[in-house]
């Protein structure tokens, strides 16, 4: 066990920002040392739209994680999502000057470097270049080309593309919060690391991560990433619909959704009512749980149908591309009651809820195994693979040098109402491979490019 390899993941979501510090224990499991969470201000549908508020929210989450863990965070692996993300399939090849030499890392780097020269739309940048299967002199379906002989090396690639401005705004927020950026990962890929098994990836599986602002999709088949997509709707649009449909404030709508909401209207009887406190002495509002479920159901169906359209676009109906392991739901939206049954009904595919507890040490806080934290856990795992020493014990820092205290930021939190003002129910309710080397070498170059841009911008 490398006790110095302290990893940090930073999940900048639309609803919340999570800073998570962890390390691998002697059994190879992830031991979480500290978690900080803050309300995400300044992020809309996965994209930063207010730099100052985002910096404050990041600092708040980071400071809380540092206080809980006793470590000072130096650098972070950050998840990226947002409606500007798109993916393309691309094939490319190189002709090697000397076929008598074995294929090495430099050949793979040269092939990936060639993909980076692809012409993108104005303002777009390549975020990930993920090799799928290699071909050497016409011999197909090679997963590990290093060490083989051949003159023509070709591969199919899954290329993830995003808006350069959005990526740089994210980098600016990280730097201004007093942190270094050690890695950038597409959020559905991080979530997949945390909740999917290798067997599922081999058999074929679609991971659906339902967040606050976006719903992310990652499809795996034969152990290889085949398709990714970001749909610009998430749990927040459901809350917004409840707010409009029931004429209540947003906080009450969120409470209604999480406590009493269901994606399946047939589960609720017509006489099941929930009472909402009125504003400033007004009469309480009575809302039928059946109507509440109808509102939620309509919006969830819309989200799932868009995701299913992406799954069909990948080619799920082709027998060779069939996703045998079905669908795995994760993210905060996966906690909605009866969503699993609704997804199975719409898609006809086997569905389960994905929890990140498989990779967590046995004594971890139960709350951390919630689908809410799947992306954060995946980002910490990504940071561990990069072998970064992302945090330093405060005790060591005290011996060596005075600690630079990160400025405390006071962010206004919504006032929580008294217990008596929460919704009341008036009627009882029933119930290390080539892949890793490629990723690391690519990310080193990519992160250096972002750092150089940020330095020049100052």
UniProtKB/TrEMBL annotation:
Xref: InterPro entries: ATPase_NBD, Cell_div_FtsA, FtsA/MreB, SHS2_FtsA
Record's keyword terms, sorted: Cell cycle, Cell division, Cell membrane, Membrane
GO biological process, one term: cell division
Pfam families documented for this protein: FtsA (PF14450), SHS2_FTSA (PF02491)
TM ranges: none
Gene3D superfamilies documented for this protein: 3.30.1490.110, 3.30.420.40
Primary location recorded for the protein, binned into one broad class: membrane
Membrane topology label: Peripheral membrane protein
Function noted in UniProt: Cell division protein that is involved in the assembly of the Z ring. May serve as a membrane anchor for the Z ring.
Assembly: Self-interacts. Interacts with FtsZ.
Family affiliation: Belongs to the FtsA/MreB family.
Identification of the protein by name: Cell division protein FtsA
Species of origin: Flavobacterium fragile
